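In full, the data:

***
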Amino acid sequence: GGGGGAVVDIRPLIAAGAEVEVLLAQNAQCGPVPSQLLLLLPEAALQQVLIPSGHLQEVARRCQVRIDLANEAVQGFRQVMLTGTLLGTAAATYWMQVGIARCG
């Protein structure tokens, strides 16, 4: 028996990320349109992985979005607002999911 959670291999997700960004760019005629997207993310993932690893800062830089953390919305979850272009917030959502996958 034993130990902790399964290790998740996120290398395929990272490799696919560039393809996702290209696909979004090729199919988003409204790419420069301003966009805000509200996410509800697990507080544990934010505190244990996404914030200390610098993942949020990397997503903000890579996707040219602003990331705002609100107070806890529902027990164990926090609202995260992505602000940028339609293309940027869509790509940032993908990269946030990759970050959460790191948590296993």
